[in-house]
Amino acid sequence: MSKGWNITCEGLTVRYRTRESYTTALREFNGSFASGRITVVFGPSGSGKTTLLNAAATLLKPTEGRVSYDGKNPYELPRTELLALRREIGISFQQPVFVSQLTLWENVELVLNSSGKLDDEHRELAVYLAKQLGIEKLLSKKSHEVSGGELRRASIVMALAKNPSIVILDEPTAYLDEESSKQVVEILRELKEKGKTIIVATHDPELIGIADVTYRLRYGRIVGSERGS
């Protein structure tokens, strides 16, 4: 069983270049994401949630500050080690990404293959997750043949099928009905029990309610944080 990493952010700042100047999307974020914990980031649209998730996932190099994994700076690792680390991160993006010519199942297998985990064990995990989320019968369809909520659930299956150490979900319950949202909550609780590092950006009160740690962002800054018992 692959357990999570402890991720620490120190003075994390991300600026994007615009046509005339720079826009600061994240300002001096100091926080941590621990293994065996559900950490929720919330705040209004444009508050920096997605930027923080991308930076924590090493998909976006910070302009200032640093991200460390168990004390190691991922950008100082040899390329092979950095790629191995990234294979241990399962991400469901706010706007799910699929290869439109492939079925949902083929998209899942594509992710497994790129992670070196295209085997019966991980295929079975994918089917288990699809059953939990109620989309098992949709796996033979292509992305344009299913609804936005169904794509969201398929994206979660893609993120989790490789049994990642680190789980990063951006608005995982968007477009989902109440029953599907409850299933996402249950899956997150199972992952917590397995010691995964779980980071979720959301507006959903149900997800905020199960968090061990929350960070509230506004204009790219922390304006509140809480830790559970």
SSE order and pairing:
Blueprint: E1 7-17, E2 22-33, E3 37-42, H1 49-56, E4 64-69, H2 79-87, E5 89-92, H3 104-114, H4 120-132, H5 148-160, E6 166-170, H6 178-193, E7 197-201, H7 205-209, E8 213-218, E9 221-227
Parallel strand pairs: 3-7, 3-8, 5-6, 6-7
Antiparallel strand pairs: 1-2, 1-4, 8-9
Sheet having the most strands: 6 strands, mixed
Q: Roughly what is the average pLDDT, rounded to an integer?
A: 94
The chain-level structural class is: alpha/beta
Helical content class: 25-40%
Task: Give the CA-based shape.
Answer: globular
User: Over the alpha carbons, how many angstroms does the gyration radius reach?
Assistant: 17 Å
| Secondary-structure arrangement, i.e. CATH architecture | 3-Layer(aba) Sandwich
CATH class: Alpha Beta
Strand/helix succession: EEEHEHEHHHEHEHEE
CATH topology: Rossmann fold
Quick summary:
The radius of gyration is 17 Å and the shape is globular.
Descriptive notes:
- Strand 8 (213-218) and strand 9 form a beta hairpin.
- The protein has 7 helices and 9 strands.
- It has helices at 49-56, 79-87, 104-114, 120-132, 148-160, 178-193, 205-209; strands at residues 7-17, 22-33, 37-42, 64-69, 89-92, 166-170, 197-201, 213-218, 221-227.
- It is globular.
- The model has no long low-confidence stretch (mean pLDDT 94).
- The chain has 229 residues and is α/β, with parallel strands linked by helices.
- It has a single domain, classed as Rossmann fold, CATH 3.40.50.
Task: List key phrases describing it.
229 residues, Rossmann fold, alpha/beta, 7 helices
